[in-house]
From TrEMBL, chains A, B:
GO cellular component, one term: mitochondrion
GO terms, biological process: aspartyl-tRNA aminoacylation
Domain Aminoacyl-transfer RNA synthetases class-II family profile: 220-683
Source organism (scientific name): Phanerochaete carnosa (strain HHB-10118-sp)
Record's keyword terms, sorted: Aminoacyl-tRNA synthetase, ATP-binding, Ligase, Nucleotide-binding, Protein biosynthesis
Similarity-based family: Belongs to the class-II aminoacyl-tRNA synthetase family. Type 1 subfamily.
GO function term, MF aspect, one: ATP binding
Protein name: Aminoacyl-transfer RNA synthetases class-II family profile domain-containing protein
Amino acid sequence: MCRPSRALTTRVIGATIGSSLPSRSSKPRRQLSRTFGTSAACLQSTPPDIERSGDKRVIEKSQSLKSHNAPFPRRSHHCGSLSVKDAGSSVTLTGWLLPGRKVGKALYFYPLKDPHGTIQLAVSSAVGGGETLELMRSIPVESTVIIEGVVSERPPKQKRALPGGDIEVTVTSCTLLNPAEQPLPFVPSDEYNLPAEEFRLRYRYLDLRRSVISGNLRKRSQVAHLIRTTLHDHGFVEVETPVLLKSTPEGAREFLVPTRTATSTPSVKSSIGATRRESFTQPLFYALPQSPQQPKQLLIASGAVDRYYQIARCFRDEDGRKDRQPEFTQIDLEMAWVSWGDYPSNNNYGQKDSDSWRIGGKEVRETIEHLIRKVWSAVEGIELPSSFTVMTYEEAMGRFGSDKPDTRFSLELQLVTDRFPQPVRDALANEDQILETLVIRSTDTQFKSAAEKVGLYEAAMSDGAYMVRVLSDGTLNTASRDGSFGILGTPSTVRDALELNPGDTAWLAKRPRTAEGGSTALGRLRLLLATLAQAAGELVLPAAPHFLWVTEFPLFTRADPDKEFLAHGRWSSSHHPFTAPMWEDIEKMYDGRIAEVRGQHYDLVLNGVEIGGGSVRVHDAKMQEHIFGKILQLSEDEKASFSHLLHALRCGAPPHGGIALGFDRLMAILCKTESIRDVIAFPKTGAGTDLLFKSPAPVESEDVLRQYGITQALVVDA
Amino acid sequence: MCRPSRALTTRVIGATIGSSLPSRSSKPRRQLSRTFGTSAACLQSTPPDIERSGDKRVIEKSQSLKSHNAPFPRRSHHCGSLSVKDAGSSVTLTGWLLPGRKVGKALYFYPLKDPHGTIQLAVSSAVGGGETLELMRSIPVESTVIIEGVVSERPPKQKRALPGGDIEVTVTSCTLLNPAEQPLPFVPSDEYNLPAEEFRLRYRYLDLRRSVISGNLRKRSQVAHLIRTTLHDHGFVEVETPVLLKSTPEGAREFLVPTRTATSTPSVKSSIGATRRESFTQPLFYALPQSPQQPKQLLIASGAVDRYYQIARCFRDEDGRKDRQPEFTQIDLEMAWVSWGDYPSNNNYGQKDSDSWRIGGKEVRETIEHLIRKVWSAVEGIELPSSFTVMTYEEAMGRFGSDKPDTRFSLELQLVTDRFPQPVRDALANEDQILETLVIRSTDTQFKSAAEKVGLYEAAMSDGAYMVRVLSDGTLNTASRDGSFGILGTPSTVRDALELNPGDTAWLAKRPRTAEGGSTALGRLRLLLATLAQAAGELVLPAAPHFLWVTEFPLFTRADPDKEFLAHGRWSSSHHPFTAPMWEDIEKMYDGRIAEVRGQHYDLVLNGVEIGGGSVRVHDAKMQEHIFGKILQLSEDEKASFSHLLHALRCGAPPHGGIALGFDRLMAILCKTESIRDVIAFPKTGAGTDLLFKSPAPVESEDVLRQYGITQALVVDA
């Protein structure tokens, strides 16, 4: 194919320090007039004739290359924004120069990459007397350049079905803006030779250059903006709440921030037998919020806004957990006047219905469903149903053995207490227990081989389940770790009670009549079976996301030693102490039937992952005081830390409720990655270490600490 | 005026705890059929017959009122969204009940307020057998209620020119949702009886209910969203950068965050004459960022995005300054490939022109001008010019004696060295000084009386200026604190040199030939004159905002003892050490002519207030190292804290630049308030104290601190 001849100019390359302005015409104009040979595919990952940047000659040459500090022109296009329509246009492009390939005696192809895409540059030795090509050959991979050139359509055979794969840019001039050192710690464009994550985190500024991470960040920004726009359209007001807040006894541990500006009066401590006077300053601290829960409730209580939102940074000083970050982002919202919706004209109200929302906070539900539908439509191209399934905690635990059931597959638990004789039922009733089963029939095409894989061992391992398998010859295999299934009688009794046939497998487990906690033994077994069934290729999960609301959680749970700071009695709050009880259970709460009280809490679950949760809050100060004092039995000091909230409720706070969605987790799901680190620009490791900024770190000197009234702690081993 | 009769129902009021669902029809239906009397104006601030909520009877009655915890219906409208078009509609409203007035034998008016507006409720004793009126009369002011009623147009005489002033809502039922305690600390709707700010900050949840603060928060949210939308439209990507960052020696003092999770190996310290072993743990800290400067530069260096923005929370641990907050918000952006614009085709380039942008970063300028135009158009209805005036630092200092000149008034300084005889000129030259003057002529209508007010005293006070006033009889008054003006000769010499006539006043001051710092004595005097001239009513500033770019600041300033941690030699960075020199001055920089080096820094000034600043950054690692090592003479440890940035520059960083605007200050200007606390939901005092959350505060116990490897510091007085 013959390309048109064209007058081209070369620019003086690599401005030296303090040089005068580079002139566009400091080199004589030359005519470029040649026939381009057949070019091979560009954008191919490792072409055989690639110029390796590790080449010693290239390294030596590149060390003499300088950064360009003089003026340069504006870019005209992104690398990813050009198309065949631009053929014939002169363009100015900027980007990272990737390894080139020789494709003819005097013709080279170089991919030029920016965050928007990659374009093929064609550079001939005829340009600028060969200086341009010589320069480009000397430029180390991943250096930044500014290119002037002309867009042309590739010959049909050379077109590739990639963005920009049908065009190339014939280079007329190249200016090196900033050379990349050689060798780089790793080459981000060489996706087949990436080092381990920990190494890449140290050089995050190279890792971020990878298209996949760069794409995740852009998607995150797009989703955040879509969420904001949708919420603004629904009358939400974005309000920034303090990051420097006060320590509260609310949940996981907080980060403290010592202050210089406000050290209180020293508390004098007499030093025995010493003439010098010693005193301890009392250091004062802010704390970083685990969520904006208190500020947002105070804001709504104030009446300044009736719909609040914030994409809020939150902080949790937890011992490193895999895939947790000490700082994370929440889509946080709160609404005044949240109601029961169209009640009492809604005839379904109060009906036992598996898809009914029987609590307050209807406006929160509607807002979130609308928001999620918008996001899935824009990002995934999936139109979600106009409302999501609602399931009570009790139903979720009974059918799926989980408070965040994965409803993409149907395998369900069954309550089988009544299939056993009266003595068994009496024994269970005495323990206030029920008996549940999970059965895989020999005719099951999805879980049969998974059930065989789980086998005796897994059944015994699955904390307290009892397995009965009917072999093909009718004989029975059983397994359990626990002798307590003796009450069920012989394996044959169980087989008969559950009507098991040859090839069937059943697991049985007891659990308290009133469900507790996040999952049961059979619930965990159900997930294990699904994992194995997927691995075996027998279970294929639907592509469509399964969103689910779980509601009506128990408001209080038996006190957990981990939460002792928030519960000195028998009970602690299942979620947080501001959640309102269901109005039907208020009397029970005041009567002390605490286990029976359900909260107006709602969790949003996606494919078995909890992506958010919230509640209608207590707006009645007397009720809130009862919960703090009588149920949670908080100390006076602890109650004092909530005194401003209680007072705000007393000043005419509207009924209100809200929710928070985990934005990092949501983005990880939308970016189809397992790790939230892939959707955070500068993440920390599971241990809370920032390998790039090398933090946390010691402070320079003890004097710095003393400004805050603190010092290194002395550890004494007796 | 006769209103139509209508069947109305009354709802049982104030659900008791654990009560069954309130029934809509638990009271017999009644016919309301009466002629409404002439109603007085509602929404009037203190009508004579107002029902005072401090009334003892009301307080007693209200104490028996309970919060409503049972279901209630969805609201149908905002109080501010109703208009005459809704006349005849049944509505469900929620809001705060304000003090009512009796307007007829059996008719009361109550304003109902929500964040969107206020509407007049009309309630008759005929509704629900009088129970509704009785309830409403017992409801304390600022309580929250849910109202059902019917919208009607007011009789023409009763219409008021206020939003909603032409309609009212005839109440059919009222439910008290939450009673407000009596007395409240203050009544937010009673704007004429507000307590001092400090008191209101303690009860911020009441203060926020005031319409002015609530309006500010809504405007802030509107502007933030407009900014985000505009930046998204311009290809900017919002990226969240870490709040838990590493301490850097960059500027003002940082907040430290001690960590529990990562305490390094103890550094053993032997204890003399003791058998026990003592050791100090080495506590490790994050630091909160003063700005996202380093993360944003690393992000752009990475190439992940080429246009970054964030509305970012920043932290500064400064000793309390008036109108500063320890946490504040910046509109932060950074762009790769910022250029000289259409250079070199732009013929103005390099011309000495008072309105030319001769540095890089053209794309930053354009983005910000576009953004500001959008905001002023949407919020203020003002169409700003398509580009803002540009002035070099040198020109700003010469003409206005300020690096952030208020150009809304024209009073300018003049350079007058040359009007004096050679010996004077020589003396000034020896000191490398110049002589400037500010003259108010007797014919000046704007500043004449201000000049007289400033008088002898102020002239002497204005740090080093020399004043000469020609009285009407031709005699001369002079004032100065400083004998150094003797070189100018007698007052008559000065009068003649400046051609002063009777009634004229002139101030003279010397300053270094190369301008330094933020303002000169005459610059400060100029602002004082303007303040006095405004107070005298002679100077009226134009309503249109005056935006101005100030560019070409000196890159380095003589080291300031406050900044010693960033400069061990003679020089410190005027802004920050990442600012690039103007390319024309690079050679001077390497040659050690440091005072002459101008930076590619730009400040955005509005009406004499700096609202933002930024720069083109150094992208050349060798240049950055020269600045760190040779000019600022940083220690190895200090340089090490920038090592990741230097390495990122070496890995092919693109040329880049950015800016940050102070969002709190910008909003204070748009909300026409002097205090940024009025545009922050939960502000701290100037001393950094949060009076609502009562932070900072001591931690509960020493044990908590020990988890972080720290303890209270012991202070020893010998």
